[in-house]
């Protein structure tokens, strides 16, 4: 009896695995019909598993050689909630270092900026029949920056924080069903002339190139 039970269990496991394989490979089959693959369901209307709706990626931002030297990374995890709605979270880290130099008889000292934060965002494809892959984009980003001068007698290290709501548009060029190149243009609704805003954003307009 034990052997029969084991045989039945293995048969059921193989059958369920085959069914799962059929479920997860269907969306891309639409390409052979000249149609874009579905994002959240199979052509038969069955919902895709959670893992197949996830997107992973991010971007490199603030890349600059010379003085200052700057480099940042911004990983992203996004979830295809519906055929036209994407929700996601992301993180940001940016390192900037100014070397000492003299400008108009003024010596600019060594300075290091460490910027880090996180954000949550929504992207909604609002006119897919007219212009597919164009999304309304809204997010809230919280950022902290540590500002440190590295010579004695200068201002003490300071920390600034800013939470900003941003609104704009994202155009996504799909590479596959779960990956694309995204160009985003946002406007910072909380931008002021404060030290924090000028160090973190430098402008109320935010442009990004990302991959997910």
UniProtKB/TrEMBL annotation:
Keyword list, A-Z: Signal
Protein name (record): Outer membrane protein beta-barrel domain-containing protein
Domain of life: Bacteria
Biased composition (Basic and acidic residues): 28-38
Span list, region Disordered: 23-50
Signal peptide (residue range): 1-21
Source species of the chain: Spirosoma linguale (strain ATCC 33905 / DSM 74 / LMG 10896 / Claus 1)
